[in-house]
Amino acid sequence: MIKVFIDGSAGTTGLRIRERLAGRADVTLITLPEELRRDADARREASNSADIVFLCLPDAAAVEAVGMIENEKTRVIDTSTAHRTAPGWVYGFPELGGRREKIREARLVANPGCHASGFVALVAPLVEAGLIDKSARLQCFSLTGYSGGGKKMIAEYEAPDRPELYGAPRMYGLSQSHKHLPEMAAVAGLSEPPMFCPVVAPFYAGMEVAVPVPGLDVDSAKKVYKEYYSRGSLGLVTYAEDADEGGFLSAGAFAGRDDMEVAVYGGGDRCLLTARFDNLGKGASGAAIQNMNIMTGAPETAGLVTDQGDRGDG
Fold it and tell me: End-to-end alpha-carbon separation of the chain, Å?
């Protein structure tokens, strides 16, 4: 039996993790009463009695929470930004070459950011294959549902008197200092982070990441993805050939699911790389549970939704 404590279980990511784990016969959830949810001593005791601790906290609180864990057998999956490029932490994207084995043995795993997940899934294999130069100055467009902004943003978007401007997509990260940029560059193997255009739209969940790469041969990119994402049956990322909807590509196609689809569009050397997934699924909670499954020896997709309405064994 896997003993799990979710520190920050009332947040959007923590709630989805709890929901996915609730029906697992191989998991026991350690829970705190509401009045002790923020109590440091209670959290410390719960963390040190768990096999796996999910940190679903703001960055500073996540760093503090790690410092509370003294039990060397307790393993940590941090969903915050705090440790994604930190020494001693393994970046939790198992579909990338060699990372599954590192995650399996790791005590400290940093869960990827939502926007970053799509970007690294698209770019890292092509850098590895030599089709994209490490010094390339790429561009990245990413459309997300408003649940990616947490409870505060959800409340703002679902308020009956929300501002009229919330009814249309809104660009943000205008300063080009978005918190995902360091991991996007480091994990993809680039020397420079991309020019990044994140957009939040008035739908609850779903994400669509697009990376245009002028000069990249479309057929060559497709060949790399076909091989890279068909390495056995493991993982949550799959390559799709011509998966558009009559010339359109919906950012909501994978809402409610925990897997990701990558595809290539364009022609000749006008190449558009795309990834679609749920910002709360493979972009957050689903990825965290996938990492837990690998760390504990459970089936990799146990408890996860990889097709509408279907969950993996476990």
Answer: 12
Query: Residue 275 corresponds to which tokens in the numbers above?
Result: 């990834």
Domain count, the chain: 2
Rounded to 10 deg, the angle between the 181-188 and 114-128 helix axes is 20
More confident residue, 34 or 86: 86
Interatomic CA distance for residues 54 and 34, integer angstroms: 18
Phi-psi region of 279 (alpha: psi -120 to 50; beta: other; left: phi over 0): alpha
Look up 140 and say whether it is catalytic. Answer: no
Give me the pLDDT at residue 199, please.
98
Q: What is the pTM of this model?
A: 0.95
Span 262-302, pLDDT tens digits: 999 998 889 999 999 999 999 999 999 999 999 999 999 99
Residue range(s) defining the domain that contains residue 137: 114-279
The C-alpha atoms of residue 264 and residue 14 are separated, in whole angstroms, by 33
Co-location of 126 and 188 in the same domain = yes
Could you tell me the CA-to-CA distances from 102 to 67, 117, 281, 287 in Å, in that order?
22, 18, 22, 15
Contact assessment for residue 221 and residue 264, using Cβ atoms and an 8 Å cutoff: yes
- Helices 40-48 and 59-68 cross at an angle (nearest 10°) of 60
- Half-sphere exposure (Cβ direction) of 190: Cα atoms closer than 13 Å: 24
Q: Is the same domain home to 95 and 192? A: no
Same domain membership, residue 118 and residue 204:
yes
**Residue in 114, 140, 197, 271 annotated catalytic:** 114
Residues 178 and 291 in one domain: no
- For 71-88, what is each residue's pLDDT tens digit? 999 999 999 999 999 999
Q: Are residues 248 and 201 in the same domain?
A: yes
Where residue 193 sits, what CATH number does that domain have? Answer: 3.30.360.10
- The whole-number pLDDT of residue 31 equals 94
**Do 142 and 256 belong together in one domain?**
yes
pLDDT grade, residue 225 (50/70/90)? very high
Q: Residue 202's pLDDT is what?
A: 97
